[in-house]
Amino acid sequence: MAEERQGKRLRITVNAPAVLGFVALCFAATLAGQISGSTLTRMLFATYRSPLTNPLTYLRLFTHVLGHASWSHLFGNMIYVLLLGPLLEEKYGSGNLVAIIAVTAVVTGFVNSIFFPQQALCGASGVCFAFILLSSLTSFREGEIPLTFLLVAALFLGQEIIQGIFVQDNVSNLSHIIGGLVGALLGFAGMGSSQSR
């Protein structure tokens, strides 16, 4: 038995290709932004109100979740993505997880453009909060609402509302709330009952 254990080698597996691909894109976008002195971040990886005739306006609705203002901003978000993403990808599949990221990006970008036209939004915080609320629905069954979901939603929404009112910083609490709502709505709309791959 001991010889058999010694003969087995540990190997690294790619357990969540969509999550790992998203993390790699976020790293590349942040690196490009840092090297360019934030020029590429503003041009490609942040969303803000811009003319509808500019094709980059539409691209940025998707790509703003890739860019981050700093390395600490990136690492803070990627911890959540790497922690929650693989569990969600295993349950819902890679394609659905990419769809969750895309829907969250577009909705948070669109809402930011409507309500905060002068403020640029970048980072995967909305995606993180979509993952947080969606992960609390992983055991969702029709006709039931998990108590853990209610607790997470109450704590999360309460914290974001309080911070939005009383803390003046560069954090977009609205994108956190919108991202969380997207995750919750997708969970209740059918992804919560999806079977794992």
Per DSSP E runs of 2 or more residues, the count of β-strands stands at 0
Q: Give the biggest sheet.
A: none
List the uncertain runs: none
Instruction: Kindly give the count of domains.
Output: 1
Quick check: average pLDDT?
Answer: 87
Q: What is the distance, rounded to the nearest whole angstrom, between the alpha carbons of the first and last residues?
A: 33 Å
* Shape, principal axes of CA atoms: globular
Kindly describe this structure:
Helix content is 66%, strand content 0%. The protein is mostly helical. It has a single domain, classed as Rhomboid-like (Rhomboid-like fold), CATH 1.20.1540.10. α2 packs antiparallel against α5 and α8 packs antiparallel against α9. The mean pLDDT is 87.
Concise structural overview:
66% of the residues lie in helices and 0% in strands.
Itemize the secondary structure elements and their pairings.
Elements: H1 2-7, H2 17-35, H3 39-44, H4 55-63, H5 71-92, H6 94-115, H7 125-135, H8 147-166, H9 173-188
Could you list some keywords that capture this structure?
197 residues, Rhomboid-like fold, mainly alpha
